[in-house]
Design a protein that fits this description.
This protein is an alpha+beta fold and 96 residues long. The chain is built from two helices and seven strands, in the order E-H-E-E-E-E-E-H-E. A hairpin with a 4-residue loop joins strand 3 and strand 4. The longest helix has 11 residues. The two termini are 15 Å apart.
């Protein structure tokens, strides 16, 4: 996945979706946010706690390569809040 986001739109989506993420869930995947970048009309960020979930759409995304990634909400929040650029480009690195 490689996409360029408007920082404010990404921060708003993070603020909304991260409300549903719980640290007290036994399934580690539910401790993350899911960012789906499929096409220009289908970019979402989802947070879940096992019972409830919040999915929010992100507008104004330029997509080079579609994909889906899991993001650690605390670290991701720190990073996007600290950035001052108007746009943020995210690229998924498939190496382990």
């Amino acid at each position: 996945m490689k996409a360029t986001f408007n920082r404010e739109n990404l921060l708003t989506a993070y603020s909304i979706a991260s409300q549903a993420v719980s640290k007290n869930v036994n399934k580690p995947v539910l401790n993350n946010l899911k960012l789906s970048v499929l096409d220009a009309n289908n970019v979402t960020m989802t947070g879940m706690d096992g019972e409830n979930g919040i999915e929010t759409k992100i507008e104004g995304v330029t997509i080079e390569t579609p994909g889906v990634v899991l993001l650690g909400p605390e670290k991701f929040g720190q990073i996007i809040r600290s950035m001052m650029d108007e746009t943020i480009t995210m690229k998924q690195d498939d190496t382990v």
